[in-house]
Design brief:
The complex is a heterodimer of chains A (125) and B (118).
Chain A lengths: L6 H7 L3 H30 L8 H8 L2 H29 L3 H27 L2
Chain B lengths: L5 H28 L5 H10 L3 H29 L7 H29 L2
The chains are: A mainly alpha (125), B mainly alpha (118).
Chain lengths: 125, 118
């Protein structure tokens, strides 16, 4: 995990390229997700009520490829952003090495299954 | 955990809101994605969301996402600009204000649905 204030600091602190790439990924995906998620909350929670989100409404909306792409972008970016963020917390608070290994193993498996499940769901319509 | 006045609480709230949103996201992907198991399975989960704790809970999810989003922007400003760190405290109070406004605004707009049900 990188604790840095600037890109230069982050580059110096990172022991591996992947850690630096995740640091950059968090910022770029976060910036994109601000628009995607706030738009999503406005359109599907503030603007319409829960009773409108019926089975038929979901199927109809996802018939449009633009919404499919929008939702898939949210799915992929937010799961990766969330998984990496939770990894920072796990590495900070789960101190013992064996515990950390299985906690991460179970957690990443669940995230991967959700990503596959959501992708299959989106593109099966 | 480091002790650094507002920065410490900004960090803690960012983590807590992030983990809470991730937990919500995982449930959300499963419950919305469950439409591939057919209409009955989907609607069985969906009708549970009409219970009032879920209706009120969505307000907290909204406020949590708004906090996490704007505090994330504050972090990006701190990381990539020269003036960001100097104004991080003021920006954090701005983030808090925006989050409270989002909560109150959403509650105000959705009040009929919150008390009357969907």
């Amino acid at each position: 995990m990188i604790r840095a204030r600037t890109l230069t600091d982050a580059r110096q602190q990172s022991h591996s390229n992947s850690e630096l790439n995740w640091w950059i990924f968090m910022r770029i995906s976060g910036l994109i997700l601000v628009f995607l998620i706030l738009g999503h909350i406005y359109m599907t929670f503030i603007q319409v009520s829960e009773s409108d989100a019926t089975f038929d409404a979901v199927v109809n909306k996802l018939a449009n490829p633009a919404w499919k792409f929008y939702d898939w972008l949210i799915l992929a970016l937010s799961l990766m952003h969330g998984a990496n963020g939770a990894r920072y917390s796990i590495e900070d608070y789960v101190r013992s090495r064996p515990n950390r290994a299985w906690v991460k193993g179970v957690f990443f498996t669940v995230i991967a299954l959700l990503l596959v499940f959501g992708t299959v769901g989106l593109f099966s319509i | 955990m480091y002790r650094g006045r507002e920065g410490q609480w900004a960090f803690l709230l960012h983590r807590l809101s992030g983990l809470a949103i991730l937990f919500y996201l995982m449930l959300h992907v499963f419950s919305i994605g469950s439409f591939i198991f057919g209409e009955r399975f989907y609607m069985a989960i969906h009708e549970t969301y009409d219970l009032w704790p879920f209706r009120v809970g969505l307000l907290f999810v909204t406020a949590g996402v708004v906090y996490h989003a704007f505090n994330g922007l504050r972090i990006i400003v701190m990381d990539f600009t020269g003036f960001g760190v100097a104004y991080q405290r003021q920006m954090w109070y701005g983030v808090l204000l925006i989050s409270v406004l989002a909560f109150v605004g959403a509650a105000w707009t959705l009040y009929p649905r919150l008390v009357g049900g969907y």
